[in-house]
Design a protein that fits this description.
123 residues, alpha/beta, 5-stranded parallel β-sheet, 46% helix
């Protein structure tokens, strides 16, 4: 299965791990450390899916990024990666139903990551 994925995460070790896991499964995974950088990329390139850390160390947080996606009318689906409780998923799905298709809680197993991405790309 192929898919072009943009991963937004402020921990580069997590980015490298996810990139390796997904690369081994045939996905084209790029990463950025700041949501602001991701917005610039999304204006230039198309991605099939965005993996989004909700709590970033940059000025723009995950939910701010979702607001900007909506404002810019970028339709790329999003899977948040978060250590926040399950209730966050329900809130985000209500607020951004056109974007949030699943959520991955940290820490996660590589099999869970791959399965959720494969399912998301089928939608």
């Amino acid at each position: 299965m192929n898919g072009k994925i943009l991963h937004i995460e402020d921990d580069e070790n997590i980015c490298l791990m996810v990139k390796e896991i997904l690369g081994n499964k045939g996905f084209d995974c790029s990463y950025v450390l700041k949501a602001e950088t991701a917005l610039k990329l999304l204006k230039e390139k198309n991605y099939d899916l965005i993996l989004l850390d909700l709590k970033l160390e940059s000025k723009m947080q995950g939910e701010d990024f979702l607001k900007e996606l909506k404002k810019l009318k970028i339709k790329t689906k999003v899977i948040p990666l978060t250590a926040s409780p399950e209730t966050i998923k329900q809130e985000l799905k209500k607020e951004y139903p056109e974007y949030i298709i699943d959520i991955i809680l940290k820490p996660f197993a590589s099999q869970e990551l791959v399965k959720k991405i494969e399912n998301a790309l089928k939608q």
